[in-house]
Design goal:
Number of strands: 14
CATH class of the largest domain: Alpha Beta
Number of domains: 2
CATH superfamily of the largest domain: Dihydrodipicolinate Reductase, domain 2
Helix content: 25-40%
Oligomer: single chain
Shape: globular
CATH topology of the largest domain: Dihydrodipicolinate Reductase, domain 2
CATH architecture of the largest domain: 2-Layer Sandwich
Number of helices: 9
Length: 334
Amino acid sequence: MAQTRRPVRWGLLGTGYICSEMAKALALVPDARLAAVGSRDLERAQAFVEPHALAHPDVRVHARYQSLVDDPQVDVVYIGTPHSEHAAAARLALTAGKPVLCEKPFTLNRNEAVGLVALARERGLFMMEAMWTRFIPAVAEAKRLVDAGEIGEVVSVQADFGVASTLPPKHRVFNPALGGGALLDLGVYPLALASYFLGPVSAAQAVAQLGTTGVDVHTLFNLRHARGGLSQGLCSLRTPTPCQATVYGTAGRIDLQAPFFHSEHLTLVKPGQAPVERHLPRRGMGYAHQVAEVHRCLQQGWLESRVMPLDESVALMGWLDSMRAQIGLRYPGE
């Protein structure tokens, strides 16, 4: 008789929108179970659990982050707090001996990222930045096609992510104390995509418009990559953009149809040939695929993902720091 594998029990640290999406994603992964939710407000934690009760019965609620990470019924902690709290929350979980999936951006800056990675490695614990787009089927297939040489040598990537935000000025995306701004909230998507297909970044140039709260609301950046490739990214809280991405090679291109960050369609275009369309459905909004990656890594005994390695997360935080310096955005306490 085949042995049944015990579900991986997740604890969500945070009760915002992204944690709600993660709760939905966990319900789509057969060996995942939402075991506990932590908030600084017990009533808020209880209210968070209610709409997920059918998919996740018997979820424990904690009114302190510390009690969540200390919960013996939690195997992995997902960090879904505002950006400014990522490092402290992840450190809390790692110190308690729990593997961590930390929402992007990984931390507020490179120094925080370096400290977290050092702690995870010192403790021998798994940790990964929640760069979920890398794991959706369309992006995974695009990477397979690139690695197979279908578009020749990759020379460039272009991607954009813009919305016309109607959120109030006090919302976290506009709050410098919470790590707000288009670059850290949306720009991480085109940045990470470019790094995935072109390899390490070696230089970055950024220009931006700053809003009334002091954070960037519209940012453009150009990147040079160590292997010679070039990429361009745009992120905006002022205007809706197509949210498309294209990977250009010497023998063709791959278009990830909008919105590229959770696309279900790609088009392979080669000169003199009919475009090849591929439909690659994702599970839910797409977060379930990164959950499956965490499970795979834990089952293999790996301390980090080969697809989203820790050193790359640290490097990308460094380039975000560099671009913020260029546009004049410094967060409180830095």
